[in-house]
Amino acid sequence: MESPNLEFEYGDTDTLTAELSELYSYTEEPEFALNRDYFEEDFRSHARGRRWIELLVEEQRAYVMRLLDALEVTDRDKRLKVARAILYLAQGVFDECDTEVDVLHWSRHNIFLLYDMGIFTALLELLSMEIDNSQACSSAVRKPAISLADSTELRVLLSIMYLMVETIRVQTEDDRPEWIAAREAFKNELASPLYNGEPFALLLFTMVTKFCSMNAPHFPMKKVLLLLWKTILFTLGGFEELQEMKVRHRERLNLPPLPEDSIKVVRAMRAASPPASAMELIEQQQQQKRGRRSRRVQPLVKQDSLDTYNERDPFKNDDARDEEEDPEDTDSGIEGEVDPLDRDVIIQPPPPPPPLRPPTERVNFPKGLPWAPKVRDKDIEHFLETSRNKFIGFTLGNDTETLVGLPRPIHESVKTLKQHKYVSIAEVQIKREEELQQCPLTLQNELLCMDQSRISCFLYHNTTFLCFAPRQIALLKLLLAAAPTSKAKTDSINILADVLPEEMPITVLQSMKLGIDVNRHKEIIVKAISALLLLLLKHFKLNHIYQFEIVSQHLVFANCIPLILKFFNQNIMSYISAKNSTISFFALVYFPAFPHCSICVLDFPHCVVHEMPELTAESLEAGDSSQFCWRNLFSCINLLRILNKLTKWKHSRTMMLVVFKSAPILKRALKVKQAMMQLYVLKLLKIQTKYLGRQWRKSNMKTMSAIYQKVRHRLNDDWAYGNDIDARPWDFQAEECALRESIEKFNSRRYDKNKNGDFTPVDNCLQSVLGQRVELPEDFHYSYEMWLEREVFSQPIQWEGLLQNP
User: Fold this and answer.
1) CB-based burial label for 761 (10 Å; 0-12, 13-18, 19+)
2) Model confidence at 25: pLDDT above 50
3) Is residue 104 within 8 Å of residue 178, measured between CB atoms?
4) Can you tell me whether residue 755 is helix, strand or coil?
5) Which of 170, 23, 84 has its CA nearest to residue 631?
6) In this predicted model, what pLDDT tens digit does every residue of 126-168 receive, in sequence order?
């Protein structure tokens, strides 16, 4: 059965309510009441019978100051009770609210109040103490099974900090002026060195690497990753901010404006093709029964007949001719075009039009291509080099202006190519680095006139350059452990430490609830890691291309490409439509504008406002009523975008896609009828089409047509024919080595302490050189006489050599 079109809108994050609910596991539900009890126990003596929402702002500030003072006590249990009371305030004092809207309102009010009173700085000190708590780490290492109880303090602190970061990050129309100012101050505070001279994100990265090295297996990784992602998203900016920064950067470099807004173009796209008709499905089944023997007997088909056949149904799907690689691929892709070698069996006589599909759905061609074509300088140079060799017999190097001796059609072609010429920021940066390499003393590094977010990104890379590879490997280890296709191993990382209860379930209903919670837990980890990696790659690429390249090379060397392909080597439709929650009726009542948000009866804030209904095995198995799970589709698109960024213009990495047989895996992903996801799948298929052979291209003509229709065109790019001179396998290793050499030159010039050591001026003055104080080791005077005899007196000195000409 074919999937319907998915009404999915891609963005930086899901709705605020969904993002807040994903912070908590279902096994943490009893702690909501615990937070409330500790708050009411302390608040009762202060408020004298009044409720929190009835207090004046000055009284609320006085009580928060009292909590802040209580955080400094030495008793660990008392600190935990105070932290739970603060968490209850950040959760919106839900026991005093009647609706989820009220909970979100008071949560926002309380969080800005907490930040104004300096709660975040106090929490940061407590968090650093818990990270350095060697006793808790050694106790967790010795434990055979780790549960929620081992990370109670960390979970409470991280929950408060996540609620503060996420709530302050999101802007609303009714924000007060003081809240807007507080947002900017908090953003700058997170980007500045808060703890030990490092930004807050680096402290969270330290927790990730410490967890993956098995030194702190009790760390709640889901909360750490969510907080790390939202911190970087807040400090550096999301996708729309990146687009604005890119436009400003191009203006600063005097480059032409972007031909279109990529975000708007992708959102306006429509998913490819409606379901196949019943007759087509019957024909495909008959074709599979005939087997391979009948295929060998069939004669080859002429191209004009094949074109006639292809034009019969412009939305007909590709047949997966990759049975040798994946037998499940026969119904994949922009679904199943019939093999051209069996054409005479099917199209004689031609079938009537499908009665089940209205004509308005069949004929729906766009008025024009969605993307403006682009041409690089390299493409123009290659075209002129080929033309000059053909018509003149010699070349002129990189000269793209001289057209003497070339026929008139070549002049017109060059004019057309130059009209669509696109110069990227990366090309300007690479050219700048080449100039810096030639003149390292007279030219200065480009550190002036940068956006504030780009400066913070630059400083962030500056402080993490030497140790960024272990952090990337740690993220990939967590992604591997959370992937649904991964098998549990004894030496693998346990990412379920903050979801497993102390007492394992004893009933079927409890087991089903825990199973749903575990799957949901893994999905949220995949979502956070994929969004975090994509965000870092995009910011590094905008900041400087070689920062992006070194991060990309670390990911490639850490087997990120096969890991992502392994992730997609599953029933991707089942993963995207995973129902790990039951949608709430109250969610639709209180949030009618968000019919697809996955707020369920077990999710916050619904579970703390309304009475919990009686859950049954049938209701848990039924799951969500929506067509798809937002976070899973978001994760898939992010992983595809990461794969595109790693392989774009890198032929050696494209060959990795071919070697790992990614074509049938990616074609199965085309079943998901969402335009943005299909676009990035088609991009990955396009770059490897030239390596897949003529037979694959012949049997996947509708995929080729979809690539032509949806993916940006590069003029003179014969991706569909495999005639590119860059497709030579012996150049692949040299390509990576040359890139590595450029990266090392960039790193030594920007981050090496002894940069430009070969060009340091030499002091030629004898008096100043002899007057310099030389630090000698402490024991040198004991062996001074022996050294003088060995190095001075026993060495013959030929003084007459000074009088001779050199």
Assistant:
1) exposed
2) yes
3) no
4) coil
5) 23
6) 999 999 998 889 888 888 888 899 999 999 999 999 999 999 9
CA distance 525 to 223: 9
Contacts of 665 (CB under 8 A, 6+ apart): 326, 565, 568, 569
**Residue 736 burial by Cβ neighbours in a 10 Å radius (0-12, 13-18, 19+):** middle
Proportion of the chain above pLDDT 70, given as a percent: 75
Please name the helix (run of DSSP H) or strand (run of DSSP E) that holds residue 230, with its range, or none.
helix 221-236
Q: Which of 650, 238, 205 is nearest to 472 (CA)?
A: 205
Compute the distance between CA of residue 433 and CA of residue 264 in angstroms, rounded to an integer.
33
Task: Please report how many Cα atoms fall inside a 13 Å half-sphere around the Cα of residue 110, on the Cβ side.
Answer: 24
In contact, 712 and 374? CB cutoff 8 Å: yes
Structural tokens at position 639 = 């992983």
Q: How far is CA 66 from the centre of its chain?
A: 41
Residue closest to 169 by CA, chosen among 234, 103, 118: 234
Confidence class for position 466, pLDDT limits 50, 70, 90: low
In Å, what is the CA distance from 510 to each residue of 51, 501, 716?
36, 11, 61
Residues 689 and 703: their CA atoms lie apart, in Å, by 10
- Residue 787 corresponds to which tokens in the numbers above? 């050294």
- Please spell the DSSP secondary structure of 705-717, one letter per residue: HHHHHHSPPBTT-
Decide: 90 and 164 in contact? Cβ < 8 Å. Answer: yes
Kindly give, in sequence order, each residue whose CB lies less than 8 Å from that of residue 740, ignoring residues fewer than 6 positions away.
Answer: 553
Sign of the Cα pseudo-torsion (469, 473, 478, 480, in order): positive
Task: Indicate if the pLDDT at residue 665 is higher than 90.
Answer: yes
* Amino acid at position 295, single letter: R
Half-sphere exposure of 167 (CA within 13 A, CB side): 26
For 211, the token pair is: 């967890």
In terms of Cβ atoms closer than 10 Å to its own Cβ (0-12, 13-18, 19+), residue 747 is: middle
**449 touches 248 (CB < 8 A):** no
Write the pLDDT tens digit of every residue in 3-24: 678 889 999 999 999 999 999 9
Q: What is the DSSP letter of 793?
A: I
For residue 752, what are the contacts with CB-CB under 8 A and spacing of at least 6? none
Identify which of 725, 796, 681 has the alpha carbon closest to the alpha carbon of residue 271. 681
pLDDT-derived band at 733 (thresholds 50, 70, 90) equals confident
Q: Quick one: which of 75, 62, 160 has its CA closest to 117?
A: 62
d(CA 12, CA 171): 13
CB 236 within 8 A of CB 209: no
Per domain, the residue ranges of the chain are 377-420
Tokens standing for residue 595: 């019919």
Helices (H) and strands (E) in the chain, counts: 38, 0
pLDDT at 795: 82
Note the pLDDT of residue 246.
93
Look at residues 536, 531, 566 and name the one whose alpha carbon lies nearest to residue 552: 536
Q: How far apart are CA 568 and CA 485, in angstroms?
A: 8
